[in-house]
Design a protein that fits this description.
With about 130 residues, the chain is mostly helical. Helix content is about 70%, strand content about 0%. Helix 4 packs antiparallel against helix 5. The longest helix has about 30 residues. It is elongated. The relative contact order is 0.15.
């Protein structure tokens, strides 16, 4: 069960950090998919949290992986709602070299690129810090 939970978290980070497909962010705009992923993440975090031994350093990294999925979804929703209210459009995470090309990608601003980089790099930096200092 622990392997399944960790693989879900790693899969989630790689998919939604922008490593595989930027079109998947369009799925998070829909309430059904967002609530489904949030529910799965909360369920798995509660399941893993009930089995954790806080004296083991490896468990802290795994715990962060689990909670990062929830944190990512909530921060993404907050930033997306901010862009929706401010610019009257959704947050755009894109690559100009993505295939197939979407004209929506041309509207991406510098702050959206900044958020995209933060979402992609943040989990790895935190895991390095946890490994070094705990």
């Amino acid at each position: 069960m622990e392997f399944f939970i960790i693989m879900y978290s790693v899969f989630f980070i790689f998919i939604f950090s922008g490593f595989l497909s930027f079109r998947l962010f369009k799925l998070l705009r829909e309430r059904l998919y967002f609530n489904l992923l949030l529910g799965i993440s909360i369920f798995l975090s509660i399941l893993y949290f009930s089995q954790i031994d806080f004296k083991n350093k490896d468990h802290w990294i795994k715990l962060f992986l689990i909670f990062y999925t929830i944190i990512f979804l909530l921060i993404y929703r907050l930033v997306d709602n901010y862009y929706l209210k401010t610019y009257k459009r959704h947050l755009i995470f894109a690559s100009k070299y993505n295939f197939p090309y979407d004209s929506e990608f041309d509207q991406q601003s510098f702050t959206e690129i900044f958020y995209q980089v933060i979402f992609a790099i943040f989990p790895f930096l935190i895991m390095i810090l946890i490994d070094k200092y705990l």
